[in-house]
Amino acid sequence: MNSALCYRQFGIPEDVLKLELSNKNLLKEDYIRVRMLYTPINASDLIPITGAYQHRIILPQIAGYEGVGEVIEAPLIYRHLIGKRVLPLRGEGTWQHFVDSPAKYAIQVPDSIDDTIAARAYINPVAAWLMLKHYSPQGKHILVTAGGADCAKLLCKWAVNLKALFVTVICRSDNHVQFYNKYGVKNINQNDTEALKYFAAHADIVFDAVGGELAETILNHMSDSSEFVSYGLLSGTFFQPKKRLPKVHWFHIRQYINNMDQIEWFNMFNEIWTELNQIDLNEPYLFKFNDWLSAIKAYQQVSMNGKPLLVMAE
Fold first, then answer.
1. Is the distance from CB of 190 to CB of 174 less than 8 angstroms?
2. Domains, the chain, with CATH or none
3. Which tens digits make up the pLDDT trace of 188-203?
């Protein structure tokens, strides 16, 4: 019997998500079945449930886009994966005990990577990796918003490694100062309007995950030659550029991975594994799967200085 967090209508996640029991269908050809171990809670998991992207989501759906698990069933050509830890990607929602996913996209997890890190190795690391590949930080002033998020931490640290001239991060609190100081990243408070204007005016590239008023403030003070990369709307508020320049790019992972062949897909993760370690990501806070409501509420706390993970193993 499989337990899954499903939504059959759009709305507030805490209201519309329901834990449902059902038997799994027969495994499709060229798919693997994975017993999930851990799966995180990200904004990218919750926002679609609200209906923000309902034009491309067909209900009902199982929530969750990433996680780590152990392969328990596979077609003959992929038998070598049975018993291995993998990221079951680009298949079913991951907030369930058993996930069926296309075998060709399954990413094996190196032995050196902890489960709680592997569970978060897709959404944020891939987003950061792709953005820095397409918008090189080398020799440039970089400004990053949502400094408390895993993706911002990766963007900043990796931008430093890629020889950015100067990296500044915007945070809502001082909880992450120690992390950023370690890498020489300037930390400014989101409520410091004068600092926002100053660093926006000097930024060559802005990576923004907040949107709303913050995005508009930054855009209004950027130079025409700079670039603004929007990859999230944590504020829940859309923004509309008021002038043609600086150029605004709307970043979505799917735009890039849909055009990747299998070799490119695997090579990307090979690079990410070598760069990913425990100190790059927020401390995991573990919640039993049945306690998913508490995990979501914990994620939504402004003061939350960690990443809620659902423990799927019974």
1. no
2. 2-120+281-311 (3.90.180.10), 126-252 (3.40.50.720)
3. 999 999 999 999 999 9
